[in-house]
């Protein structure tokens, strides 16, 4: 696993094999969203990533700005050859999106980060007796 590479105190992006893992926080303004999009798309290319997991479990609300950003990120990533899964949406966020009529068109979701990683090809390795748990990407 590589170390995070946040740019200018931005959102860390971790690499697990050929999958990038990142997350969104509550405070995401236009400038930080653009910097995050630039960094993520650059990392998809430089790391030859085939998958991206964006964990939104810390977001308490998703407005039209964040919904649009997730849709655009998904489209850009697909154009660069990477599959994106947004994981960890809270029930209140899903309810709000529906009530506001916001659709995350083209955005694939997973219940949590582990389910998202499994969908991207990650598998928990069998644990030999007496050893600490190991995880791996295949």
TrEMBL record:
Lineage: superkingdom: Bacteria
All residue ranges annotated as the STAS domain in the record: 18-120
InterPro entries: Bact_StressResp_Reg, STAS_dom, STAS_dom_sf
PANTHER family (UniProt xref): RSBT ANTAGONIST PROTEIN RSBS, RSBT ANTAGONIST PROTEIN RSBS-RELATED
Name of the protein this chain belongs to: STAS domain-containing protein
Organism the protein comes from: Streptomyces cremeus
């Amino acid at each position: 696993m590589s170390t995070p590479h946040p740019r200018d105190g931005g959102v860390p992006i971790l690499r697990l094999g050929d999958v990038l893992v990142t997350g969104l926080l509550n405070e995401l303004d236009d400038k930080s969203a653009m910097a995050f999009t630039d960094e993520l798309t650059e990392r998809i290319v430089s790391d030859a990533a085939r998958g991206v997991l964006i964990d939104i479990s810390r977001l308490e609300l998703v407005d039209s700005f964040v919904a649009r950003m997730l849709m655009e990120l998904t489209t850009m990533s697909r154009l660069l050859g990477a599959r994106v899964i947004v994981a960890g949406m809270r029930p209140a966020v899903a309810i709000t999106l529906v009530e506001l009529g916001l659709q995350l068109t083209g955005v694939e979701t997973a219940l949590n980060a582990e389910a998202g990683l499994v969908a991207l090809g990650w598998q928990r390795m069998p644990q030999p007796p007496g050893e600490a748990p190991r995880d791996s990407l295949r």
